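User: Design a sequence. Structure:
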């Protein structure tokens, strides 16, 4: 029995890592039997030798091997104590009482070992508690090995030739443990990169921790360009290399996770506030800035990083991810590489988070009375005074807050996945309304504002195509508007989407032109149909020479590039005259009409008479 105990511990069962509390020694099958038949002293002697063999086989430190030996010594002592109290000795002919008392001794063994391990883990704050599922695997396998011991002992008393057959049963237990561990690992590890996945992050964040932690969310910039240019196989290799580089620069006490797609996360367990978290983020960014060699081709990669801090209040994983994602999109919008989530910022306030939750609920329920409506403002051709289109403007009649304007809605929704739900809802309502106008004999082109996040996803082109087909609507009656700052932040990433929309016949308008930092090369290459001059310049052009010069320059630039120029914020006749003299194509503003619901717009159109340009100029 002693020889078998030492031999089988040359192949211990290791669960997930090599900590002493995560090791199951098959020798307990024999040492438990030895304790029941010959007492605690020989059992302890054999167990110490077996633990030494297992520690050497796993290449554990002397300290961890000692911890493992102490745990098993305490467990054998507890089992032997129970056996001594009830005078249990397994003889050649055990009865039912012996079986029940053996179960009690095995229970004492399990409670002693895992109770000691739990106490040590609680005292050591750096130890993370294991999931209950893995603990269940440990207890089940341990119980199977312990209760197999008396069976081996009884078999040995019948004939020693049958004892080696127990190795087959031990092999079955080993296979059970390994299969359970592989299943657990597959559920917590990303198949492509080998990094822990979102589920592993959730389990780690849920563990109690004595110090402040930071979650750093990394989103690779222009990764889709790599996939499109070099293929998905190279893209996958790039993700593997990114994962390897992150794992190399992140300390062992921190966790590197792949969340999916081109998103990674790092859970930093030892941070002293936002400055330290920023330092870690810039260290990660610097590591990724070095080119990756793929098939001899250097590929440059950068990442936008959002940081969320977890304090003693132990925020849940979903909250941390949401905050880190909001910070990451803040970084992208501002053109920064790193941003820290701040609960005191206006767009991170509890009030706006509550508004976002209400908006998400309204969009998902899609009730007829959810309060989400669209107003339409006419766009007028300056040379003829005719209505050439309308712009759809979002409004939300909140049941408690009242009317919420488009700026507030977009500011709240754009950094989150709610923006996609909102865009899809607006697209559907606008296409349906334009189709109704068309059927009524009044075809009007409608412009819809979309965010860069919508165009990054790429699925918006599929949805537009589906809607146009569903309502049999010509593509030239729909126009999409995107702000200059959002487009120019990452023009390559949205190029494929807007090119596809352009080929479908859907025009693309560059909104708020003049407020960002545009590249003329991008303006020349992107399939744009028009530029909209920002209202901040149009409002002041009648009184400010600088604003007037900017407006004229934008009109001349649009003319040179073959684009329509549309002026926003036209509120008086003098501005209208100046735009006409500058050669602007169209205008919208309160000088003609305010935004109005569809029914009011129909009434307005029936009464509207075009303003004849010569009359204005006389």
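Assistant: Done.
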């Amino acid at each position: 029995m002693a020889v078998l105990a030492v031999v089988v511990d040359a192949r211990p069962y290791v669960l997930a890592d090599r900590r002493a509390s995560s090791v199951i020694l098959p020798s307990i099958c024999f040492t438990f039997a030895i304790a029941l038949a010959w007492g605690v002293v020989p059992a302890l002697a054999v167990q110490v030798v077996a633990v030494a063999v297992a520690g050497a086989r796993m290449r554990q430190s002397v300290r961890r091997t000692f911890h493992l030996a102490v745990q098993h010594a305490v467990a054998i002592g507890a089992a032997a104590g129970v056996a001594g109290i009830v005078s249990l000795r397994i003889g050649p002919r055990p009865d039912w009482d012996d079986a029940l008392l053996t179960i009690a001794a095995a229970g004492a063994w399990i409670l002693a070992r895992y109770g000691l391990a739990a106490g040590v883990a609680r005292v050591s704050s750096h130890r993370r508690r294991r999931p209950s599922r893995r603990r269940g695997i440990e207890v089940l396998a341990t119980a199977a090995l312990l209760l197999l011991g008396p069976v081996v002992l009884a078999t040995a008393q019948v004939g020693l030739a049958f004892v080696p057959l127990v190795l087959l049963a031990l092999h079955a237990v080993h296979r059970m443990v390994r299969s359970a561990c592989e299943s657990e690992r597959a559920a917590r590890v990303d198949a492509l990169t080998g990094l822990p996945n979102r589920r592993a992050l959730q389990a780690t964040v849920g563990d109690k921790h004595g110090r402040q932690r930071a979650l750093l969310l990394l989103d690779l910039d222009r990764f889709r360009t790599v996939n499109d240019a070099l293929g998905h196989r190279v893209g996958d290799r790039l993700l593997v290399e990114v994962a390897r580089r992150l794992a190399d620069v992140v300390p062992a006490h921190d966790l590197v996770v792949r969340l999916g797609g081109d998103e990674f996360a790092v859970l930093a367990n030892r941070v002293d506030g936002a400055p330290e978290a920023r330092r870690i983020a810039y260290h990660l960014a610097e590591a990724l800035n070095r080119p990756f060699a793929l098939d001899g081709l250097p590929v440059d990669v950068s990442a936008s990083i959002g940081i969320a801090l977890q304090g003693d209040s132990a925020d849940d994983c979903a909250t941390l991810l949401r905050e880190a994602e909001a910070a990451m999109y803040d970084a992208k919008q501002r053109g920064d590489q790193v941003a820290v989530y701040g609960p005191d910022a206006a767009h991170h306030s509890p009030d706006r988070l509550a508004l976002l939750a209400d908006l998400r609920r309204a969009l998902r329920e899609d009730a007829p009375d959810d309060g989400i409506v669209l107003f339409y403002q006419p766009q007028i051709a300056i040379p003829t005074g005719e209505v050439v289109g309308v712009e759809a403007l979002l409004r939300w009649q909140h049941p408690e807050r009242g009317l919420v304007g488009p700026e507030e809605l977009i500011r709240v929704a754009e950094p989150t996945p709610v923006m996609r739900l909102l865009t899809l809802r607006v697209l559907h309502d606008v296409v349906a309304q334009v189709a109704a106008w068309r059927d009524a004999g009044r075809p009007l082109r409608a412009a819809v504002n979309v965010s860069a996040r919508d165009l990054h996803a790429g699925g918006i082109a599929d949805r537009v195509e589906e809607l146009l087909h569903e309502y049999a609507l010509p593509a030239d009656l729909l126009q999409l508007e995107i702000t200059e700052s959002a487009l120019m932040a990452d023009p390559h990433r949205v190029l494929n989407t807007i090119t596809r929309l352009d080929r479908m016949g859907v025009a693309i308008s560059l909104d708020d032109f003049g407020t960002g930092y545009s590249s003329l090369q991008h303006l020349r290459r992107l399939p744009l149909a028009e530029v909209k001059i920002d209202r901040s310049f149009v409002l002041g052009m009648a009184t400010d020479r600088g604003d007037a010069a900017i407006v004229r320059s934008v009109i001349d630039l649009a003319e040179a590039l073959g684009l329509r120029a549309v002026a926003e914020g036209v509120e008086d006749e003098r501005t209208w005259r100046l735009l006409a003299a500058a050669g602007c194509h169209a205008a919208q503003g309160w000088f003609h009409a305010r935004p109005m619901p569809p029914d009011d717009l129909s009434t307005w159109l029936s009464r509207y008479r075009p303003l004849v340009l010569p009359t204005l100029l006389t």
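The longest strand covers residues 387-398. Residues 178 and 618 are 91 Å apart (CA to CA).
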